[in-house]
Amino acid sequence: MADITWISNEYEVGDFCMLIPGFAGQPIKAFDKNGEDITSTVFATNGFMKVDADYNPKPFEEWSIKDWPQTYQNPTYGNMYATGIAFAPPHSISKPMKSANGRAISPAPPRTGMPSGVIGKIVAENIAERIKSGKFERKHTANMGRMGAACIVSAGYNMTKGLGATITVSPVVPDWEKYPDWGRNIKSTVGEIGLAGHWIKLFLHYMFLHKAKGYPFWWLLPE
Amino acid sequence: MEKQNKVTTAYKDEFYPPIPTKATKFWRTCLIFQIYSVLKFNLKIMLIVVKGHS
After folding, report:
1. pLDDT digits (tens, 9 = 90+) for A28-77
2. Cα angle at A140 between A136 and A144, to 5 degrees?
């Protein structure tokens, strides 16, 4: 039994407790060229940057993947983008719940790793095309409701006895219109522990470094 | 001083994680099956990556 005493002397009791800092952006201020404070225009109250998402408050039953951003561009200042964990999500992914004590439990969407890589890539491509052509077409999009992700967790290092947990999710944000039963493609949303995960992770390590260092044919390697 | 043994028990039975059976542990490190898994997961990941891009 774990007893945790919070700073406010409020007790929460559970079998396993994990203390993590609040998931919020940096307290950055923004000013326009006239010196006016535009922080509330650029950033949401949680410190993340507003992008082309639907921030209108709505109940869980009305959440949709269309609420999520496509091009990750600030709607007011088109020269600013926020990728990965920098953009303000329209809402959480899972249904907000409450503990027995009334404490809100609202899991934050995972926006690290693979989704961030894909988002960063399409933003870079849109910016490059804008610079080259002078036109602002925003051809490249990456909605998290249409994007899958893979994650591999190491669980032991050994080429014949090691383990890795391979987790794939498709899409990251559940699309209840396309997949009314589970919100996700069940064939593509799997999790398995085994040697295969360890081998794949080892391969990915070399692949990412090959790409990061710009070695030959790095541009062929996907995010 | 008398040393107290601290016994930790979960609140409910379902809070205990499922323990893998011998068969489960065998398949996790069976080379032939895991080679097949590597191919299967690589295909899944590639499809996810391809479909995820606009």
Report:
1. 899 999 999 999 999 998 899 999 999 999 999 999 999 999 999 999 99
2. 130
Determine the Cα angle at A82 with ends A18 and A177, to 5°.
75
| Residue among A78, A30, A76, A72 nearest A51 (CA) | A72
Least CA distance to B50: which residue of chain A? Answer: A222
> Measured between beta carbons, which residues in chain A are less than 8 angstroms from residue B45?
150, 168, 200
Dist. CA A48–CA A82, nearest whole Å: 8
**Which one-letter amino acid corresponds to residue A28?**
I
Name the pTM for this structure.
0.80
Residue found by looking up tokens 């069940």 in the block: A186
The interface pTM score, or ipTM, of the predicted complex is 0.73
Instruction: Parse chain A into domains and list their residue ranges.
Output: 1-146, 148-211
From the list A140, A192, A223, which residue is nearest B37 (CB)?
A192
Q: Does A207 touch chain B (CB under 8 A)?
A: no
